[in-house]
Amino acid sequence: MSDYATHRRKALDAFRHLALDEVDSTNQQCLIRAREGDPGHLWLTANRQTGGRGRRGRLWASEPGNLYSSLLLIDPAPLADLASLPLAVAVAVHDAISAVLPPGSPPLEIKWPNDVLIGRAKTSGILLEAERLLDGRHALVIGIGVNIRFKPSETPYPTASLQEHGASVTPDEFFSHLFIAMADALALWDQGRGVADVMRRWRHVACGIGEKITVNLPDRSISGVFSGIDDKGILLLDRGSLGITPVAAGDVFFEPNGPRKE
């Protein structure tokens, strides 16, 4: 076995997986285990969630047939380097979906920071939650839901499922791809030391660079041209005479039929 293959096998072997039936939330169950002293590198998957949620407390539809998963990491990197982790996670989800979509599918892209889109319709949800534990460790949970058989309908944006685009895959089969892709992405990210390589991978499959967008912030909305990301994954919004505005967190919406900036 080559050195690369040996290293990759050790990276994969570092992760554990526990499959559950019905839970309130795989993220919540990971946090419970972290508080109980779990060392991390633990995947939890569930057939169904009764209390799944997305960003800003939104409910996430969790009927059987889709993927509901969370990965628990303990002290994954210095706190200052964690901002780029969501983009590394998105690269992993993109790679896993790419592995199961048939040839000729619509473009598979990442919308900043970590939404994976098929033909500009959202097919996955990623939610990172962190907690400082009583023993001083930092627990970080990466929650990932993927629309495999079903997709939510009451959303402010278009949605897609893998099945409607010809991917015949079960949640377990898809998770096997995600398990490998995530180990590879985290190894590339390397506790924040590999951020440049992650940003290069992210830009290669980015959606909407050069297009007019609106970014919804907690207190307001701002519009401009999406001019890319910086070396830490911060969105750069070109607001014309107002200059470039860096955005660390927000919801991005593309303008319908908006002009592209060449």
UniProtKB/TrEMBL annotation:
Catalytic function, reaction form: biotin + L-lysyl-[protein] + ATP = N(6)-biotinyl-L-lysyl-[protein] + AMP + diphosphate + H(+)
Keyword hit for Ligase: yes
Domain BPL/LPL catalytic: 13-190
GO CC entries: cytoplasm
The protein's Enzyme Commission number: 6.3.4.15
Keywords tagged on the record: Biotin, Ligase
Name of the protein in its database record: biotin--[biotin carboxyl-carrier protein] ligase
Keyword Protein transport tagged: no
EC class: ligase
Alphabetized GO MF terms: biotin--[biotin carboxyl-carrier protein] ligase activity
